[in-house]
């Protein structure tokens, strides 16, 4: 990155690190939500923004990852830091199976997208009837006192969760930056632009697409573990719902797919505008059902019409920053 981009990134990092020192509980919860979507946006961006494989079923990995670690903690008292690795392995294997099924038989484009939705819906229905995990009644984790920090069991004040997701978002940004500038990134971009031409050049498109799917799913599984222990409950209807997948992908689409800062900018914009509008509507006493979804639609429409490549590429050109 050039000097301006480094300065921008450093300023953002310092601001985020210092935020809990002056933010109230509400602002901290909004910032935590923003970082969560920035992290999941980076995970999805690897699959779509880098490799060009559109998934609308990423809630599958979010839910399976969250339930895997939560079940170990709920039934056996196993730390989520250990359960996290099981969640990652399960979701990596699941995504590899999905990818192999799709790519081996030439399922691509809209049909691949429909396949990801189908897997997520099957998981939602299955977990809804899985009584060992609470079924449709939900799985509720034991909530300990939040006045002390217990990193091993992810228990503590809101600042603990904020710094945990900040660390994950930072690691995701660093990983994506590294991948984008190494062989995987170049191969993925070649596949995204023209898969047939990439194959003609000798790139094993099947293997590299599987790798993108697996990395994206594994990262999303970690987000699922965080979500489970942040809210202390899981409901199949909520975590596997297609609306959750849509929330994950909006940040990269609005901010700019295939870029590093795009998912961050998009997540910040979507979180601030939707939550701010929800609070404003509540304060005015208005009853507007689905106001958040309405704002999602307006922002997405505006970006598609006026900034088809996303917000960040336009900012990068204006400020002469590397995307």
Description:
The protein is an all-alpha fold and 323 residues long. The chain has a single domain (3-319), classed as ABC transporter involved in vitamin B12 uptake, BtuC (Orthogonal Bundle), CATH 1.10.3470. The chain is built from 14 helices and two strands. A two-stranded antiparallel sheet has the order 1-2. The chain is globular. The relative contact order is 0.17. The mean pLDDT is 91.
| CATH C-level | Mainly Alpha
How many angstroms separate the termini?
Answer: 8 Å
Mean pLDDT: 91
Kindly provide the radius of gyration, computed on alpha-carbon positions and rounded to a whole number of angstroms.
20 Å
**Order of adjacent strands in the largest pleated sheet:** 1-2
> What structural class results from the helix and strand content?
mainly alpha
Strand content: under 5%
Oligomer: single chain
Shape: globular
Major pleated sheet: 2 strands, antiparallel
Low-confidence stretches: none
């Amino acid at each position: 990155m050039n000097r301006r981009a480094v300065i921008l990134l450093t300023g953002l990092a310092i601001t985020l690190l210092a935020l809990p020192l002056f933010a109230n509980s509400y602002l901290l919860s909004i910032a935590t939500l923003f970082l969560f979507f920035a992290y999941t946006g980076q995970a999805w961006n690897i699959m779509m923004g880098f490799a060009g494989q559109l998934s609308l079923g990423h809630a599958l990995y979010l839910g399976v990852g969250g339930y895997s670690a939560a079940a170990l903690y709920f039934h056996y008292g196993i730390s989520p830091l250990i359960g996290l690795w099981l969640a990652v392995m399960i979701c990596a294997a699941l995504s590899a199976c999905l990818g192999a099924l799709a790519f081996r038989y030439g399922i691509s484009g809209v049909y691949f997208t429909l396949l990801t939705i189908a897997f997520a819906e099957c998981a939602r229905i299955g977990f809804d009837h899985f009584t060992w995990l609470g079924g449709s009644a939900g799985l509720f984790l034991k909530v300990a006192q939040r006045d002390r920090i217990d990193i091993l069991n992810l228990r503590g004040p809101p600042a603990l969760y904020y710094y945990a997701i900040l660390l994950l978002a930072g690691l995701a940004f660093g990983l994506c930056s590294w991948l984008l500038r190494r062989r995987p990134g170049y191969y993925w971009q070649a596949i995204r632009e023209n898969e047939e031409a990439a194959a003609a050049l000798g790139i094993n498109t099947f293997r590299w697409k599987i790798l993108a799917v697996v990395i994206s799913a594994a990262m999303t599984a970690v987000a699922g573990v965080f979500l489970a222990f942040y809210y202390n409950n899981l409901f199949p209807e909520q975590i596997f719902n297609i609306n959750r997948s849509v929330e994950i992908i909006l940040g990269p689409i609005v901010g700019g797919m295939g870029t590093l800062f795009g998912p961050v900018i998009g997540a910040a914009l979507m979180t601030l505008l939707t939550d701010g509008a929800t609070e404003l509507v509540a304060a005015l006493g208005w009853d507007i059902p689905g106001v958040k979804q309405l704002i999602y639609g307006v922002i997405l429409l505006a970006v598609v019409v006026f900034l088809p490549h996303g917000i960040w590429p336009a900012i990068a050109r204006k400020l002469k920053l590397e995307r």
